[in-house]
Amino acid sequence: VWFATLLLVVAIERQLFQPIGEAVQVAKRIARQDFSQKCGTGGIARQSRALAESLNEMSDQLQSALSQLRQANAQLQDDIRAIERSESAMKHLIGNLSHDLKTPLALISGYAEGLSAGMAKTPDQQQEYCGIILDETERMRQIITRMLQLSQLESGQVQLELERFPCGSDTLHQPGHQRQLPDGKHQVGQQQGAQH
After folding, report:
1. What is the pTM of this model?
2. Biggest distance spanned by C-alpha atoms of the chain
3. For residue 188, pLDDT beyond 50
4. Whether 180 contacts 187, CB under 8 Å
5. Quick one: three-class SS letters along 97-153?
6. Spatial separation of the C-alpha atoms in residues 139 and 145, rounded to whole Å
7. In this predicted structure, what is the pLDDT of residue 6?
8. 181 and 110 Cβ atoms separated by less than 8 Å
9. pLDDT in tens, 33-72
């Protein structure tokens, strides 16, 4: 009788505590983000089976959530790299535009100072100085207009309309803009083939 009671206690212990021990091991693996092991649900008491099923469901949900987080993190990293490239391109563009604005400003300033100092003695020279000032003012207006268009394009206020155009070697190698200041000492402007 004593031996039969001992066997009954061992059998009951296995039925109750082995599934709990297994559930503890599965819970520890889940805590380490290892979702590979599941709790067994066959042949155990109803409460233990409910615990095992809950742990299995939690494991599946955590695995799915972790997978989604990893995908979102990868997308975020891609977005950050794209923003960094965009910011770098914008800094480069601003540097180029600043350089492009300095040229007409220098010419306008130089010719205005030449007019003010009386360097243009004849009406033809005065007309030439005024023409250069007007040309360079128009050039600055065009640069600023392009900057504003770019800003509108980047903010989504304007959409590009694609169209075809010829692009031959004569289109790519047009001479650059070049002028000499009235004092004759400096040449300012874009030389043919120069890069900014």
Report:
1. 0.45
2. 134
3. no
4. yes
5. HHHHHHHHHHHHHHHHHHHHCCCCCCHHHHHHHHHHHHHHHHHHHHHHHHHHHHHHH
6. 10
7. 78
8. yes
9. 888 888 776 655 666 777 778 888 888 888 899 999 999 9
Residue pair 52/43 in contact by the 8 Å Cβ criterion: no
C-alpha 93/C-alpha 77 separation (Å) is: 24
Q: Which of 50-59, 90-99, 119-128, 180-189 is the most confident on average?
A: 119-128
Residue 17, pLDDT score: 66
Tokens read off for 121? 């003695």
d(Cα 149, Cα 58) in Å, to the nearest integer?
Answer: 53
- Which residues fall within 8 angstroms of residue 156, CB to CB, at 6 or more apart? none
Question: Is residue 100 within 8 Å of residue 61, measured between CB atoms?
Answer: no
The whole-angstrom separation of Cα 189 and Cα 177 is: 6
Rg (CA), the chain: 39
